[in-house]
Amino acid sequence: MPVQRRDDGRETGGATGSREAGGRQEHGLWRGRRETPEERADRRWTELVQEIRVAQTGVQILFGFLLTVVFAPRFADLSDVNRTIYIVTVVLGAAATGALIGPVSFHRIVSGRRIKPQTVVWAARLTFTGLVLLLATMVSALFLVLRVATDDGFVPWLVSGVALWYLLCWFVLPMWARHRYTTRD
């Protein structure tokens, strides 16, 4: 096999170069990336950090807003049920914030220990947990706001519809695509 030059100038190829890097051959063509485990961990970490940035911004804004609600004049007028919903929402927001910031701390503490592939796995788990907690926080916050804004019986139905939309966008569609495009007959 001839030696090839990658975009970054390094050479690849030789007798086993592309096979060892995890590519697979289909119909005579190599599929997948040709990267070392370290390169893959670096790429996956970079992608994960970009994803976390989006989620962190949303959860931090929501959590900051939730923390100020208790100081609003109308807070004293909330019923016990609405106060309980508020407390649950704040705790969910705090947990989501912790899970979504956790990968940064995890990476910083283990940096330089040559365990980036394991770090990426744990950071991905924390991120997924953070997304589930963010979903619960947003549904709970929406439920509280709509309960305070109106006493109509349609609020639980409306919130359930939004929760189903979040589940569809955040989990069902990606899982469907994962199954559809990665499962081989």
From TrEMBL:
Residues 1-11, 21-38 have a biased composition (Basic and acidic residues). It holds the Pfam family DUF6328. Keywords: Membrane, Transmembrane, Transmembrane helix. It comes from the Bacteria. Residues 1-38 are annotated as: Disordered. InterPro entries: DUF6328. The chain crosses the membrane at residues 52-72, 84-106, 126-148, 154-177. This is Integral membrane protein. It comes from Streptomyces rubrolavendulae. The lineage of its organism: Bacteria, Bacillati, Actinomycetota, Actinomycetes, Kitasatosporales.
